[in-house]
Amino acid sequence: MRKMKMSENEQLIEPTKLSNLSLNTQYIKDISLKIPDAPHIFKTMPSSPSLTVTVDVNAQQMIEGEPNFDVTVFIACISTTAPPNNDEKAKVIFNLTLQYAALISFPTLETSNLEELLMVHTPDLLFPEIRNVILNITREANLPPVILQRIDFATMWKEKRQENQNITEIDINPDTK
């Protein structure tokens, strides 16, 4: 995917310009829940376990030259107990990974906005279902329910672009000895 520069004051696509976006289908691409210490963990479940959530977004064109894309949001939730003292490690209560995807198409969007549509607006559309899937899985597994807070995909996208820009701007010269 080609890189595009975005200035600090550049605005995101207006919601009214997204009306030609077609969300053809959304689906669970992959899901995994591991409870390493089951069933023992249920006897010693802490009231306030620690939770780490990581998020990533990936998009790829289905067929070159056609406006159809597969956008996947990756979410990993790892819950741990607090270590009893400094000598012991925290125990993993559960490890939940979810790949939630959508097939989208848009016949008339400008290519200058393509990356933003794929990496910001599509994940925003998917987020309510992602939150629901994670909540239901953790609740049905008799784990502390995970209710994800809103994810700022726009900021995440801008930061990732900035990191990628910094990486590509590094001048790599072979040592000349």
TrEMBL record:
Keywords: Chaperone, Protein transport, Translocation, Transport. Belongs to the SecB family. This is Protein-export protein SecB. One of its GO terms (molecular function) is unfolded protein binding. The keyword Translocase does not apply. Pfam families: SecB. GO terms for biological process: protein tetramerization; protein transport.
